[in-house]
Design goal:
143 residues; mainly alpha; 7 helices; 69% helix
């Protein structure tokens, strides 16, 4: 097991305000793109109910399930008095705990789907960082 956070802090100087995976992975993507290489990761950002509909459709959810899910999210937004749709989709560890509590309380699969999207993104970002470290080791910091 390797603590990527400690490894990054000890071995890298990156133009980011925090060495969290949320900031490092997009920075690495930018650095690699400048070299014409793949790498890093950008988080999936759902910003609206329409984008949620698209994500659920891409995940092969049926039309009635999509409509029910959008209605569910709309109800929760009203309960929380949220006017900004993006706020309910703010992917973070804190929000994933909120989504889990909503799933436990309301039993609606859309909340578990949002957790799944968030966790899949974290896994992809972690893999991208591991790949970047391996690339740097093999290429000895290619310039």
């Amino acid at each position: 097991m390797v603590d990527l956070y400690k490894l990054i802090r000890k071995t890298c100087f990156l133009p980011v305000s925090s060495y969290s995976i949320k900031e490092v992975a997009p920075c690495i993507r930018s650095l690699m793109e400048r070299k014409g290489l793949p790498g890093g990761h950008e988080w999936k950002k759902i910003k609206s109910l329409a984008e949620l509909e698209q994500e659920l459709a891409a995940s092969m959810w049926a039309g009635p399930a999509i409509r029910k899910s959008v209605d569910e999210v709309r109800k929760v937004m009203a309960d929380f008095e949220l006017s900004d749709e993006a706020a309910i989709f703010d992917a973070s560890a804190d929000m994933s705990a909120v989504w889990f509590n909503l799933y436990v309380e309301r039993k609606e699969p859309v909340w578990m789907k949002l957790i799944e999207i968030y966790n899949a993104d974290d896994l992809k970002a972690t893999r991208a960082l591991v790949d970047w470290f391996l690339f740097m080791e093999v290429n000895d910091g290619v310039k």
